[in-house]
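ESCALATION

Customer reports they have been waiting on this structure for their group meeting. Please prioritize. Original submission:
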Amino acid sequence: MSTHTTSPSDAQMQIEPVTPSRRGFLKQTSAGAVAAWAGGLSLGFYLPPAVADKLATDGPQAGAADINAWIRISPDNRVFCQVSRSEMGQGTSTSLPMMLAEELECRWDDVRMEFASVNEHIARNKVYITFSTGGSRGTRDSQLVMRKAGATAREMLKLAAAQRWGVPVSELVAIQGKVNHSASKRSVSYGELAAAAAAQKAPSDIVLKSPEQWTLIGKPLKRFDIPAKCDGSAIYGIDVRVPGMLYAALAQCPVFGGVPKSVDSAAVLTRRGIKKVVTGPDFVAVVADNWWRAQQALKAVKVVWDYRGNEKLDDQAIAQTLQAGVLAARSLRSEGDFEATWAAATGSQAAEYKTMEADYFTPYLNHFTLEPQNCTAWVKGDLAEVWAPTQSAEASLHEAAKTLGLPVENVTVHRPYLGGGYGRRGASQDFVRQAVLIARELGGTPVQLLWSREEDMQHGFYRPAALYRQRAVVSKEGRVLAWQARLASQSLLEKIRPASLKNGQDFQAGESFHDMPYQVAHLDLRHGICQINVPVGFWRSVYHSQNPFARESFLDEVLHAAGKDALRGRLELLPAGGRDYKVLEAAAREANWGAKLATGRFQGLAVQDAYGSYAACVVELSVSKQKAVTLHQITIAVDSGQVANVDSARAQIEGNVSYALSSIFMNEINIQDGRVTQSNLADYPLVQLRQIPTIKSVLVPSGGEVWGGLGEPPYAPITPAIANAIAAATGVRLRRTPFSQDGFSLA
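Update from on-call: job pushed to the front of the queue and completed.
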């Protein structure tokens, strides 16, 4: 396949930066404005002069015409698709063009991908809807828009052909990048029609193809971003190079919330290559002609920090706060009468029941993106330019403008690839704020800010620590009668989107409990919001990375006490035929649940819905006498409704397994003296390739117009499935992560 993409180093990254004129942009986009390009047409679309010149020289879009904001077609039939979502390895930059091409009826080999301009987005009244990439929403929230854009363009091309030939549009068929008229045996390419099509009025009565008509969606198409990432030509934020650029290394107060009190930089200002020492509101930075010099000089700068009384926080104090949060937890969902059932089961009728109690705990976790936080900024008076590996270019734009006190139209944001996101580069734009503050002090010289790994480890926005106190009642016949779960953690919504709280309660923090599908007569599900001086943020699959561990592991304990098989017991509690039920059956069937296993091997399973998808996991493992765990096979079944790109879907499942194993067995963030104790890979290790088991990815799409996420849902059932398998192998119930806390390691 000869599919090609314009990489960020071409059309999206101006190595010779330019500042677009808003006046010029408005001239281009005003009603009836049409600009000729090399004998073709561009309607309502702005490209900075340097980029336009480069494209004219290289020739990839000479004479291209905008059919709508999402599509540009060149005379040689190439289709340029605008992608507003960020590409951080999840494959969105391919799946979205697939949606567009499916309805456009063009040849896939003719499709190219470009990252849309956030500046154009703002200037054209948010024409691309959103630039935010997170919550497994990249495809599921954009697929309908992209399909409609493709279908609209297809009909406009047919209208242009009908005008050219003087025939009814109903007699025309669009297929493989051409419009055909069978009666006269005439055919014309999209490239020939593009300019005329751009002048057509967009039809309002668009009919989309039904799933059974799809020829691209759901197929394992090659991704646009992979070739450049394999040959080294892909440009990540850390790879950005601007002529005359300087480099900045940064240090923040080791205690959360602290600020610089005094800074003595005299010892470094005379060093070779050192240009400036910048003191910000919460950081100190050294700027030099290369990053290594800046980083080494930074170590010699004498900084006295004001800890503002936050230096006494530690793990013990956090544990006490969580304990108090459990006791003060407020109701998320209540059915039946748990307390009365518990009283009966522990009172005079105790012989008729079995009761279980258990506490579970999950620690703070760092995102550990392989590319540390970075941003390149150039502040030129009342204009600024930013290159940010961001999950939300719109948030980056507004952060830079707000920090500099500039109108958003005076700030240009470019989007390179991201070396990992996982939520770290979305709502939190601290790296952009710091970069523009430093660049402003350099008087018109571009500066690239790069955090060290230690800085990245100790100044993240961590997954919250959480405590779970659970109780359950089972009848002597083995029926689960009552279940109580009292959760406590910090609230992400309280910090990031307080308006989303409902009567002061964070239902997102209680996900997988308040919305659990299990049919239990007496439920009491609560959550307590805790105030702790540790910065928290969205982390891959957010609370679904931790709450299912507590839910599904405790349920396994309950079913074991009830004498029930882990699979059959769950199916009895789930609505028959529901998506949870079916995906659990699919995973169990693929993993041969219940079949005789090799000596010393055991299985565990779990199921959880998240972000519109349903995922089930079956783990097969063995455990040595030294508690070394060998993972032989992990089977994950996912029902996402529809699947955009089968190859990307499987890659996402495999990526979730790899990401999860580090946090399950090895990783935690500890707090002592108000600061993070971990610093780098030595005390925050990552899973090694040799430890990755065979991964079976099972796609069980339920079809229709349901589009679930795939970047995060596969994570949700992995931790409890492994814990349950270890319990089957050893009889030990693991109730906290990482499992190394109880002596278990990956072999």
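Sent to customer with the following note: Confidence is low (pLDDT under 50) at residues 1-60.
Escalation resolved.
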